[in-house]
Write a structure and sequence with these properties.
This protein has five helices and five strands. It is α+β, with helices and mostly antiparallel strands.
Amino acid sequence: MKYLFIILFLILSVNVYSQENIFDTVRNTNSIENVEFPDSDLIYKVEKHPVVDIERLTTLLKYPKVALQYGVEGRIIVKVLVSKDGKVLKSKIEYTDSPLFIKPALYAIKSYGYIEPALLNGENVACWLTIPITFKLSGGDSLDRFFEILNGLLFLFL
């Protein structure tokens, strides 16, 4: 019983210590002026967030051949670190409906070029930007592809 209390005390003290560190980190994140690589999990206050033209970005997307062949549609959410010069320094996948969309999405973002950076106190600063990208077949392509696959399956069974 004595050891149980000691173990419980140690667990609680470690938990409280780690929470204090988290709160200190969050309190100190209100300024990113001197931060070269801000943490992607923290929220920073800026006057203006980085800007990406989603329509222009979608024109750079190349639909994956396998996804096109089987009529796969979906979304991917990419988080990118935009430098104060408007260049993409890092990127990470936050969510994807299919791993087929990862390479084309990252390639499109890389091909996009200059991204308008975030502003703080009238100066450009590095900041993370979340970019949602939708892979959608145009018009009736997905429905037509569905019937082609269905027809192929029926042919196999007949």
